[in-house]
Specification:
Distance between the termini: 36 Å
Shape: globular
Radius of gyration: 13 Å
Strand content: 5-15%
CATH class of the domain at 6-89: Mainly Alpha
Strand order of the largest sheet: 1-3-2
CATH architecture of the domain at 6-89: Orthogonal Bundle
């Protein structure tokens, strides 16, 4: 896996946003990323690193995965999503947040589904 590739960026996003989630939650986070990228793999890294979109990218902390098993799982989920092995279980979601927070931006979106500890939304 090459740093900077769509697969690498998607796996990092899954790892940092959903490594503690069940596989379905990790697939859902990956689907949001891909829905934003409009299924064009060349845009995945741009989506992941767009300012203010995913909290882990704004953090100053080290972004290198530190949990080998979780990193391996995130890579496998990313590969499956990019290869089209999973349906979009988010119903076209382009946004999500942890259920413990209530961001204001949810008011202008439509809730699609809750998977694990995340709630997913799409444009109205």
């Amino acid at each position: 896996m090459t740093p900077g590739s769509a697969l690498f960026c998607l796996a990092l996003n899954i790892y940092h946003e959903a490594r503690g989630e069940p596989k379905s939650g990790q697939i859902a986070v990956a689907m949001v990323t891909m829905n934003r990228a409009e299924w064009v793999p060349g845009k995945v890294c741009q989506v992941v690193y767009e300012r203010g979109q995913f909290s882990w990218t704004d953090s100053k902390r080290n972004k290198t995965p530190r949990e080998p098993q979780a990193w391996k799982k995130a890579q496998a989920v990313a590969r499956g999503v990019i290869d089209g092995e999973h349906p979009d279980i988010t119903q076209g979601a382009t946004h999500f947040h942890a259920k413990r927070v209530r961001p204001l931006w949810t008011q202008r979106l439509e809730k699609t589904v809750r998977i694990g500890d995340h709630i997913f939304y799409t444009q109205r």
